[in-house]
Structures are given as C-alpha cells and as structure tokens.
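Protein modeling request. Please complete all fields; requests missing the sequence field cannot be processed.
Requester role: graduate student
Desired output: 3D structure, token encoding
Chains: 1
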Amino acid sequence: MIEFCEISKVFNTDLLKKNFQALSNVSFSIPEGKIIGFLGANGAGKTTSIKIAMDFIRPTSGDILYDKSLGGSKKEAFKYIGYLPERPFFYSHLTGRDFCKYLSQLSNVSNQLFKERVNKWAPIFKIEHALDRYIKNYSKGMLQRIGFLATIIHDPKLIILDEPLSGLDPIGRKELKDVIVELNKEGKTIFFSSHIISDVEEICDSVIFLKNGEIVFNGSVDQVISANIKPVTNISYFKENQVKTIKVDNNNKSNQIKRIIEDGGDIISVQADRPTLEQIFYNVK
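Delivered output (285 residues):
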C-alpha cells in the first residue's frame, strides 16, 4: 500500500555540529492485508520513517509511493490512513466521545456511522464505560484506547501505529494486540513500530528491523528466524534422578542420542534450537 524507495533523511543541526543522518537508503513496502512490525531501538529511525510516510517531514532523497488502493496519490491516500502517534495530543476538556466525534467530523463521517462505529468498537477496546468522562481524568491505558478508537473512527484501510503498546501493563498489551488482530481480520492493513519484540513476534506476518537508520532484516517472522537458526539440537533426558539438557551439533545428534541411551538415560525430548526474534535482534551487529 505504501512503498519506501531509497529514503534518506539528514537533519541539519547546529552549524558547529555534524549533520545527523537519521535514515540511509531505506527501502521497503507495506503490503495490503498484512500486520507488519517495525522494530528498532530508540533512535533507530522508526518515528522519522513514519513521519515521512505521513508527510509531516520530507525526505532528503528518495520517494514514497502510494498504491492505487489508497487512491494512488499522496493527497488521496491520507483519507484512507489512520495514524496514532507515539505521543498523541488529547483535548483534556473534552469527553472521550466528544473527542472521537470531533475527529470523525474532520473526516466527514456521518452521525449515524459515527454512532455505529463507536457502538461496535468501544466495547472491543473496553473503553465504553469511560466515553462520557473527561479525558483529563483518563489513565495511560484509557488514553491509549481512546486514541486507538479515534484512529479508526473513519474506517481507514491502512492503520499506522507508533509504539501503540508502550507503557501498558501485560493485560492492556494483550487486549490491544487482540484488537489489532481483529482489525486485520476485517481487512485492515496494520503497520506498527515497537521495541517490545515479543509482541511483534506474536501477531505480525512480517517484520522490518531498523538499526542506525538502515534496514537490517525485512521478511516474514519465520524467514528471519529460519535464517538465524544454528544447526543445533537440544536433547533433554532423564538420568540419575535428574533431567538434563545438552546442545549438540545436528550432524552428531544421532550418535549423542545413542550414547545417552547406552549410558542408561531416558530421552525426554529432541528439539531444534530455535531462537526468538528478541534473541536475533539483540545479536545484530
């Protein structure tokens, strides 16, 4: 739906300091109908990339292409995009319902559609009980939920989320992950940045790793993990009233199993040593 074509971004800083290269020849696409995770440590360039996609800032070089499914042009595309920034601004003197109504009016959503969408999604976000409270009295979790609801109130085709799960407790993260999956089942494309790698691994179809402004990995979660699996097997066995686990090279797996059995051990399990996405990410040099 959106394609980054060799995007670079250089920020001009103080005259006495060297310019900062935030992105360097970044190329990737956001395919329709998928959940794509955008990973990277703080300062990797994730938010800069998203701001360029949203046309808040312009790249130093490169182009952003918008698919025909989004209208085919930059001007048309933003009608079909829902965006939740990492630090959204809320009008604290409004209720949650009034805030969502205001944003729906900016997108020319009819009163009837607004009511239907609030009635549908507010219970799913578990925010219906707080819709008529003033936003100034909302907790962090409630702000995330009302912000998310406002993001989808105009029924976007593409939803871009910048650190949507940051600062939430495990229950809150689980509930919002469930909403992301539900939105995707309804045909929405989801692109979200995060530094919580386990969350990305759990729900994303593909993942993009950004490190120091450059793409390190780009592919399905399984592809990224498969490409980093070492030919090692974990063998667990029971011997001398203890459960023991050893790592062996795959080429030596059969011989090691035979040796364990000959020594009186009982094999419990034989499993490939599969790293997590988090282990892969933090080993990237």
